[in-house]
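Posting here for the record, re: pyridoxal-5'-phosphate.
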Amino acid sequence: MNRYWSKVVHGLTPYVPGEQPKLPNLVKLNTNENPYGPSRRVLDALRAEVGDTLRLYPDPGSDKLRAAIAARHGLTADQVFVGNGSDEVLAHVFLALLKHDAPVLFPDITYSFYPVYCGLYGIEFTPVPLGAAFEIKVDDYLRPNGGIIFPNPNAPTGRLLPVSEIERLLQANPASVVVIDEAYVAFGGESCVPLVKKYPQLLVTHTLSKSHALAGLRVGYATGHPQLIEALNRVKDSFNSYPLDRFAQAGAAAAMEDEAYFAGICQKVAATRTTLVAALQGLGFEVLPSAANFIFARFPGRDGADIAAKLRERSIIVRHFRHPQRVSPYLRITVGTDEQCAGLVDALREIV
Ligand SMILES: Cc1ncc(COP(=O)(O)O)c(C=O)c1O
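Prediction output follows.
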């Protein structure tokens, strides 16, 4: 332990992102990236940014991008906040909207960055156990809280909650902020964004990393009541006024205007998911129903870590979580191209 470190740093347990291997020719099914590239329009917009204007700071308010996001969702720009990936948006959400006396509620099996933000900002939280089929049970959230957050579909399970259930939660929980993290909603779920006009305590976050094949650009956003957005802007402008560079703003705005392309690649991923699930079930795997661009699967009687290690020997990487105990038999497998998934199924056939 370093004596120059602050007390805060001594107490941190940082998030561990999925591996970004430097080895060539790996089939990379471990971090839920999109197997298809971004649209031509996005690449053209990025190229157009290369030039003398790079000596100038970018627009601190990302006005053009927020207008494009607002137009896409039928909102106004003051209902939109953008950040350097939805991870940054979520970090600001925890500090701005979820740090209260009562604990924040989120599922015991969910995006593992949430407890990390609580640790960073000193926020109390209570993990709420998922049900027997790894489902989120809204009734378990109907209690005093300092805020509620979960992904829909949830990660790493892929399980989807219907919008009607989220609306039931909002009606029963007017006193604190409810954050729905829709990182994966484009692959098979219905979005709650239209509900932000109706519920002032609802904040919905999105990312361009998965559905828009732009994990490398780092853009995410939140939609909600202007007062929730104002809270996020207060934190942002106390931290970094320019979180999105010129490339990120231009590329993301072009992505928002090329919806047909992105809907097409998400549909392709969803179709591959159907084929992959059937093939794995044919081999004897149990697969949770997924509305995301990944699946959560286990082979009865086999350890998840062992299967992951054997896949790695065959140059295929997937994600395995050791904790909590209940998920350790499972593998989280990103849905790749048809060809990548066929290769995965062949490898798993040999292994099991
Ligand atoms: C549920 C969930 N939310 C948010 C994110 C963050 O995405 P990004 O920071 O790339 O926008 C991820 C990434 O894996 C995720 O799984």
